[in-house]
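Before relying on records like the one below, remember that each one covers exactly one chain. Contacts with other chains, cofactors or solvent are not represented anywhere in the record.
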Amino acid sequence: MTAVMDYARISQAISILNQGSTAYFAIGKKTAWTDEDNPPAEDTTKQVLDEVIGYRKADKFSLCIPLASGATPIYPTVTYGKNVYQLVPQADAYKVKATSIYFETSIASSDFPDGPFREVGLHLGLQSKVAGKLNLLPTEVASTGILWLLTNDILTPRTQSRSVTLSYLLTVKPIVGSAE
């Protein structure tokens, strides 16, 4: 067997991190699922969300590593799911073997028109038609780039009095190859 080396995984994580300035979360799917309590599995061939409401630039993106149970953090931390991660500066990536990237954004109630959503995605390489704007309507996007992550979820309500924080953790996993 052939294995991809740890430093290659770290290098790939850094390459993804370097696209962070083009990272946008997308929200969509205003209409109901066939079974609202059980959203369908994500379609891994999808390139754009259904019924896109808008795109919101990632407010935070950083390499990260899990914080071991009982350990004292040496970097700032975030909680993702039930786990705590340390946000690692790129200069320390190889030293601590950082192979994950954390992305986060907050969508204010005033960023997009009111209404629920059921899909969340993360696009890298998005190109805006409007320079410097953090929240974009679909008509303000020149290119969506690549949809890297997608979540089909139960209804998330949005109203003028409710903001939403979205986050994703992307990990470059070990790959086993073959040689002849």
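The chain has a mean pLDDT of 93.
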